[in-house]
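Weekly sync, protein design subgroup
Attendees: M.S., D.O., the rotation student, P.L. (late)

Item 1: inverse folding check
M.S. brought a backbone from last month's batch and wanted to see whether the design step gives back something sensible before we order anything. D.O. pointed out we never logged the input encoding, so this time it goes straight into the notes. C-alpha coordinates as presented (233 positions):
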Protein backbone atom coordinates (compact mmCIF):
# COMPACT_ATOMS: atom_id res chain seq x y z
CA UNK A 1 0.00 0.00 0.00
CA UNK A 2 2.74 2.47 0.89
CA UNK A 3 4.45 1.82 -2.43
CA UNK A 4 1.26 2.57 -4.36
CA UNK A 5 1.50 6.20 -5.34
CA UNK A 6 -2.13 6.14 -6.38
CA UNK A 7 -3.59 4.63 -3.20
CA UNK A 8 -6.77 6.37 -2.07
CA UNK A 9 -7.27 7.64 1.45
CA UNK A 10 -9.89 4.97 1.97
CA UNK A 11 -7.39 2.30 1.05
CA UNK A 12 -4.80 3.76 3.43
CA UNK A 13 -7.35 4.03 6.21
CA UNK A 14 -8.42 0.45 5.68
CA UNK A 15 -4.85 -0.81 5.83
CA UNK A 16 -4.22 1.17 9.02
CA UNK A 17 -7.43 -0.16 10.52
CA UNK A 18 -6.35 -3.73 9.71
CA UNK A 19 -3.04 -3.22 11.50
CA UNK A 20 -4.69 -1.58 14.49
CA UNK A 21 -7.29 -4.30 14.86
CA UNK A 22 -4.75 -7.10 14.41
CA UNK A 23 -2.46 -5.49 17.01
CA UNK A 24 -5.35 -5.11 19.43
CA UNK A 25 -6.11 -8.79 19.05
CA UNK A 26 -2.61 -9.79 20.17
CA UNK A 27 -2.79 -11.26 23.69
CA UNK A 28 0.62 -12.69 24.60
CA UNK A 29 1.30 -12.64 28.36
CA UNK A 30 4.26 -10.85 29.89
CA UNK A 31 7.32 -13.09 30.03
CA UNK A 32 7.39 -14.88 33.40
CA UNK A 33 11.00 -15.14 34.65
CA UNK A 34 10.36 -16.03 38.30
CA UNK A 35 11.04 -19.78 38.05
CA UNK A 36 14.23 -19.10 36.11
CA UNK A 37 15.32 -16.43 38.60
CA UNK A 38 14.82 -18.88 41.49
CA UNK A 39 16.57 -21.74 39.71
CA UNK A 40 19.61 -19.64 38.79
CA UNK A 41 20.07 -17.76 42.06
CA UNK A 42 18.65 -19.05 45.35
CA UNK A 43 18.37 -22.68 44.28
CA UNK A 44 21.73 -22.64 42.48
CA UNK A 45 23.48 -21.29 45.58
CA UNK A 46 21.78 -23.92 47.72
CA UNK A 47 22.69 -26.66 45.25
CA UNK A 48 26.37 -25.70 45.18
CA UNK A 49 26.73 -25.48 48.96
CA UNK A 50 24.37 -28.12 50.37
CA UNK A 51 23.81 -30.73 47.69
CA UNK A 52 26.30 -33.60 47.63
CA UNK A 53 25.17 -34.48 44.11
CA UNK A 54 26.87 -31.24 43.05
CA UNK A 55 29.88 -30.82 45.35
CA UNK A 56 30.81 -34.52 45.32
CA UNK A 57 30.30 -34.92 41.56
CA UNK A 58 33.51 -36.41 40.22
CA UNK A 59 32.58 -35.80 36.57
CA UNK A 60 33.74 -32.22 36.13
CA UNK A 61 31.94 -31.98 32.78
CA UNK A 62 28.59 -32.44 34.55
CA UNK A 63 29.39 -29.76 37.12
CA UNK A 64 30.55 -27.42 34.35
CA UNK A 65 27.35 -28.03 32.39
CA UNK A 66 25.31 -27.00 35.42
CA UNK A 67 27.50 -23.96 36.09
CA UNK A 68 27.22 -22.92 32.44
CA UNK A 69 23.43 -23.25 32.46
CA UNK A 70 23.21 -21.10 35.59
CA UNK A 71 25.52 -18.49 34.09
CA UNK A 72 23.60 -18.40 30.81
CA UNK A 73 20.37 -17.74 32.71
CA UNK A 74 21.76 -14.41 33.90
CA UNK A 75 21.84 -13.18 30.31
CA UNK A 76 18.24 -14.17 29.72
CA UNK A 77 17.11 -12.56 32.97
CA UNK A 78 18.82 -9.27 32.10
CA UNK A 79 17.20 -9.19 28.65
CA UNK A 80 14.06 -7.10 28.99
CA UNK A 81 12.80 -8.50 25.71
CA UNK A 82 13.45 -12.17 26.36
CA UNK A 83 10.64 -14.38 25.11
CA UNK A 84 8.89 -16.98 27.20
CA UNK A 85 10.42 -19.64 24.95
CA UNK A 86 13.91 -18.32 25.72
CA UNK A 87 13.18 -18.28 29.44
CA UNK A 88 11.74 -21.77 29.34
CA UNK A 89 14.74 -23.07 27.40
CA UNK A 90 17.16 -21.55 29.94
CA UNK A 91 15.18 -23.07 32.81
CA UNK A 92 15.09 -26.44 31.08
CA UNK A 93 18.89 -26.34 30.62
CA UNK A 94 19.41 -25.76 34.35
CA UNK A 95 16.88 -28.44 35.33
CA UNK A 96 18.39 -31.06 33.04
CA UNK A 97 21.98 -30.26 34.06
CA UNK A 98 21.02 -30.45 37.73
CA UNK A 99 19.24 -33.77 37.22
CA UNK A 100 22.41 -35.18 35.61
CA UNK A 101 24.52 -34.47 38.70
CA UNK A 102 25.27 -37.69 40.53
CA UNK A 103 27.75 -37.07 43.36
CA UNK A 104 27.50 -39.56 46.22
CA UNK A 105 26.67 -38.58 49.79
CA UNK A 106 29.81 -37.72 51.76
CA UNK A 107 31.16 -40.75 53.64
CA UNK A 108 32.56 -39.71 57.02
CA UNK A 109 32.80 -43.08 58.76
CA UNK A 110 36.54 -43.66 58.32
CA UNK A 111 37.28 -40.11 59.49
CA UNK A 112 34.96 -40.54 62.48
CA UNK A 113 36.78 -43.72 63.48
CA UNK A 114 40.23 -42.20 62.99
CA UNK A 115 39.42 -39.10 65.05
CA UNK A 116 37.53 -40.76 67.91
CA UNK A 117 37.99 -44.44 68.73
CA UNK A 118 41.37 -44.83 67.06
CA UNK A 119 42.65 -41.49 68.35
CA UNK A 120 41.75 -42.41 71.92
CA UNK A 121 43.43 -45.78 71.50
CA UNK A 122 46.52 -44.15 69.98
CA UNK A 123 46.90 -41.67 72.83
CA UNK A 124 46.48 -44.25 75.58
CA UNK A 125 47.99 -47.46 74.21
CA UNK A 126 50.49 -46.51 71.51
CA UNK A 127 54.04 -45.83 72.70
CA UNK A 128 54.77 -44.08 69.41
CA UNK A 129 52.44 -41.35 70.66
CA UNK A 130 52.90 -41.21 74.42
CA UNK A 131 56.68 -41.72 74.31
CA UNK A 132 57.17 -39.30 71.42
CA UNK A 133 59.79 -36.78 72.56
CA UNK A 134 59.21 -34.39 69.67
CA UNK A 135 56.28 -32.35 70.97
CA UNK A 136 55.71 -30.80 67.56
CA UNK A 137 54.85 -34.23 66.16
CA UNK A 138 52.41 -34.96 68.99
CA UNK A 139 50.86 -31.53 68.54
CA UNK A 140 50.49 -32.08 64.81
CA UNK A 141 48.58 -35.30 65.51
CA UNK A 142 46.42 -33.64 68.18
CA UNK A 143 45.65 -30.73 65.84
CA UNK A 144 44.66 -33.06 63.00
CA UNK A 145 42.32 -34.96 65.31
CA UNK A 146 40.78 -31.72 66.60
CA UNK A 147 40.32 -30.34 63.09
CA UNK A 148 38.43 -33.48 62.09
CA UNK A 149 35.69 -32.62 64.56
CA UNK A 150 34.86 -29.49 62.59
CA UNK A 151 34.62 -31.44 59.35
CA UNK A 152 32.44 -34.12 60.96
CA UNK A 153 30.03 -31.51 62.33
CA UNK A 154 29.69 -29.83 58.93
CA UNK A 155 26.60 -31.30 57.29
CA UNK A 156 27.78 -29.98 53.93
CA UNK A 157 31.39 -31.15 54.10
CA UNK A 158 32.58 -32.43 50.73
CA UNK A 159 34.24 -35.77 50.23
CA UNK A 160 37.42 -33.92 49.35
CA UNK A 161 37.33 -32.11 52.70
CA UNK A 162 36.75 -35.35 54.57
CA UNK A 163 39.53 -37.10 52.69
CA UNK A 164 41.92 -34.22 53.40
CA UNK A 165 41.13 -34.33 57.13
CA UNK A 166 41.66 -38.09 57.19
CA UNK A 167 44.93 -37.77 55.31
CA UNK A 168 46.15 -35.18 57.85
CA UNK A 169 45.48 -37.58 60.74
CA UNK A 170 47.02 -40.54 58.94
CA UNK A 171 50.19 -38.67 58.02
CA UNK A 172 50.59 -37.13 61.49
CA UNK A 173 50.12 -40.54 63.11
CA UNK A 174 52.67 -42.14 60.78
CA UNK A 175 55.19 -39.46 61.76
CA UNK A 176 55.00 -40.38 65.47
CA UNK A 177 58.11 -42.25 66.51
CA UNK A 178 58.14 -42.74 70.26
CA UNK A 179 60.14 -45.77 71.41
CA UNK A 180 58.59 -48.68 73.29
CA UNK A 181 58.71 -48.12 77.05
CA UNK A 182 61.86 -49.69 78.57
CA UNK A 183 60.98 -51.28 81.93
CA UNK A 184 64.07 -53.42 82.45
CA UNK A 185 65.88 -51.13 84.89
CA UNK A 186 62.70 -50.68 86.91
CA UNK A 187 62.02 -54.42 86.89
CA UNK A 188 65.54 -55.08 88.17
CA UNK A 189 65.34 -52.37 90.84
CA UNK A 190 61.96 -53.49 92.15
CA UNK A 191 62.53 -57.27 92.14
CA UNK A 192 66.05 -58.72 92.20
CA UNK A 193 67.75 -55.64 93.62
CA UNK A 194 64.95 -54.95 96.10
CA UNK A 195 65.12 -58.49 97.41
CA UNK A 196 68.87 -58.23 97.71
CA UNK A 197 68.63 -54.84 99.43
CA UNK A 198 66.16 -56.12 102.02
CA UNK A 199 68.18 -59.24 102.84
CA UNK A 200 71.83 -58.24 102.46
CA UNK A 201 72.05 -54.48 102.86
CA UNK A 202 72.53 -53.24 106.43
CA UNK A 203 71.47 -49.76 105.31
CA UNK A 204 68.00 -51.26 104.89
CA UNK A 205 67.65 -53.86 107.63
CA UNK A 206 69.43 -51.76 110.30
CA UNK A 207 67.59 -48.58 109.39
CA UNK A 208 66.02 -47.31 112.64
CA UNK A 209 63.87 -44.67 110.94
CA UNK A 210 60.85 -46.73 109.98
CA UNK A 211 59.51 -43.96 107.79
CA UNK A 212 62.53 -44.28 105.51
CA UNK A 213 62.13 -48.08 105.28
CA UNK A 214 58.43 -47.64 104.57
CA UNK A 215 59.17 -45.12 101.85
CA UNK A 216 61.47 -47.66 100.16
CA UNK A 217 58.91 -50.45 100.52
CA UNK A 218 56.20 -48.22 99.11
CA UNK A 219 58.33 -47.26 96.12
CA UNK A 220 59.05 -50.94 95.40
CA UNK A 221 55.35 -51.81 95.69
CA UNK A 222 54.31 -48.94 93.43
CA UNK A 223 56.74 -50.15 90.79
CA UNK A 224 54.75 -53.36 90.46
CA UNK A 225 51.72 -51.37 89.26
CA UNK A 226 53.81 -49.56 86.68
CA UNK A 227 55.35 -52.82 85.45
CA UNK A 228 51.94 -54.42 85.06
CA UNK A 229 50.63 -51.48 83.03
CA UNK A 230 51.12 -52.35 79.38
CA UNK A 231 50.62 -48.70 78.48
CA UNK A 232 52.99 -47.15 81.00
CA UNK A 233 54.96 -44.30 79.48
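Designed sequence read out in the meeting:
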Amino acid sequence: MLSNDNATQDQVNAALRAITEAKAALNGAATDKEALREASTTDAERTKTTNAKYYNETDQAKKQAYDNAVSAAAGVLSNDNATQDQVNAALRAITEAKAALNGAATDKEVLREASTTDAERTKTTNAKYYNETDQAKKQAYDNAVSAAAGVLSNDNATQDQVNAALRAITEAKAALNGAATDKEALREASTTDAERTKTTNAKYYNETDQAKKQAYDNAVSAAAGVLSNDNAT
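Discussion: DSSP finds 15 helices and no strands in the chain. Residues 212 and 218 are 10 Å apart (CA to CA).
Action: P.L. to compare against the previous round before Friday.
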